[in-house]
Amino acid sequence: MTRFTVLVAAPRSRSAVRDTALRAASEVASRAGVASAPDVIDLAELGPDLLAESSEAVDAALETVRRSDVLLVASPQAHGTYTGLLKVFLDRLPELGLGHTVAVPLAVVDDLRNSHGIEEDLRILLADLGAWVAEPGLILADDETGRPDSVVRAWADVAAPGLRRAVSVAA
After folding, report:
1. The dihedral formed by the CA atoms of 11, 107, 116 and 67, expressed in degrees to the nearest 10
2. How far is C-alpha 81 from the chain's CA centre?
3. What confidence tens digit (pLDDT) does each residue in 123-157 have?
């Protein structure tokens, strides 16, 4: 069974980014033949524990991410790139800690004209940790998060075949 995790790096828990990420995960999983429901890690819920020297909740979240076959990473754009929450969390993984993982980047941006930086930054971050990064990632404008269905479905149609191949190779 494929282990699928959605990692949400929005500064507020239960955000529109989280809702969009769950929608995207559902769409791409159904098209790629991933039957398992994803684990969800909302970094905002871990709050100050992310900076603590040790935390059972953070350790459990890291273990879930390390065990994931597919990891959908969702971040709003912050100062032109992904959030500090995501960086602080992923810095706790060991070198090549995502070495067996297929990563799917998802970014929510204020303006689509300025979106390429975050996608590239997410790809580099995830690849540096050893993940195979799926093509294409999903970039949504902030105002699309309230009604993401048509964009998410179109993206999932394009992304699912590559994801399906990557998951079958990794299995």
Report:
1. 100
2. 14
3. 999 999 999 998 889 999 998 888 888 899 999 99
